[in-house]
Amino acid sequence: MEIKVLGPGCPNCHKTEEVVKMALLEAGLPAKVEKVTGMMEIASHGVMRTPAVVVDGQVKCSGKVPSLAEVLSWLGR
Amino acid sequence: MPAKIELPSAATCACQSAPPAPRSQGLGRYLLLGLPLLAAWWLLYRHLEAMAAWLTHVPLGLAEGSRLAEAVRFFLYDTPKVFMLLVLVVFGVGVVRSYFTPERTRAILAGRRESAGNLLAAGLGIVTPFCSCSAVPLFIGFVSAGVPLGVTFSFLISAPMVNEVALVLLYGLFGWKVAALYLGTGLSVAIVAGWVIGRLNLEDQTEDWVREMRMDATYEPGERLGMAARVEHGLIAVREIVGKVWPYVIAGIAVGAGIHGYVPENFMASLMGKGAWWSVPAAVLLGVPMYANAAGIIPVVQALMEKGAALGTVLAFMMSVIALSFPEMVILRKVLKPRLIAVFAGVVAVGIIIVGYLFNLVI
Fold it and tell me: Can you tell me the distance from the alpha carbon of B187 to that of B184, in angstroms, rounded to the nearest whole number?
């Protein structure tokens, strides 16, 4: 499983990364979390609002910090 | 370079916080709670002025008419007033914004002709959630989906300039007429500046990779929100926006209160009054490096106006602070070539200067 957190580095992007990491710990899943800060790559995912979370190439949310429960549901938990 | 973080496969942590319990609060509960709150809000709001005067003269024991008493009363009245208005309006706007996503706005604007498109884009700029840190992906998203460049700019100018925090502060400190003037002229600047940029045919002035980018617009946030979820949207907006601007607002009102009590009458007339022709362009120039402090600048500017600064000059200054920010231009440089940035800044600055002179002339 590959997870990307997209965002140029605003406070909400950091919060999102924290939530994603917490969800992974809770689910006990071995997954890579990649932080994407490059505008070109963020835009190539078709995202117009940051922070956004991409799980296995699929955009799961954009423009808000997701809740722990939401992230867990994307992980299939 | 994106940092890769490897996480341990199965870490156990005793102090791990429990996941938040699923919220099942219905709309009924919000209504039950919201209506009495609204009534209390209204009662309190109506008596703020009397309460501020009483606090200043009775418990604090400041003599009526003294400079310190004037400054303290001003602060004690304006601070709660602005915060009460902010909470209410930011909540309302948050609920309205849950109906508008950038994806939906893009779908409305894609393929629009100019003129009507500029008008629509400026209007949508008010209600579509926007944060300047997303200006670049939003720009690319719009342009690659076929929204004309000028129409995109109308949106990018209107979204930060005509925002609810500025409007609340203007309404609370200057009254509804100035707030309405700001709304009307802000929209006009966004519409006209976007239209002019569209006429100039500067499509080749976006960075090459932006034009080559094909957007796979697969992501459609198809969530249908219930009313309770929209109320939550509003509450989150209050927490985020009010949580961010409150120090600026308090600092601004404190400085404003100081000016109100201590700066002599008509002090600003020679500097920012109608007589000084250069004051409007100077105010616009001064506004460019100021950013994020819009919430703090409006109370200061209000106090300056009391001391003889002209309304047009003051409006021009505020618009420049909010719409022409140096950091945002640095962000936009990633997608725009320098010439287009210069044209953007120039056209908006000229628009704001015209607004400033117009008001100094008319009022």
Answer: 5
